[in-house]
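Subject: sequence -> structure tokens, single chain

Hey, anyone have a minute? Need the predicted structure for the following. Not urgent.
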Amino acid sequence: MGCACKGGNKTRYEVVVTTDGREKVVFASASKPTAESVGKRYAGSVIREVPPKNAAESTAK
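Reply:
Had a minute. Here:
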């Protein structure tokens, strides 16, 4: 069953690899443990937390 969050209300986690001074997202997930597991496959990767798209709107109210 799918999630009721409509895709914009959930924190995302990205696995980012830096090569030649450029960052590249190699994997993205809503699950932190999954992102951490995938990040172990990439040497020097970093897990980056991406806030929900509407997080700025909800804090501005």
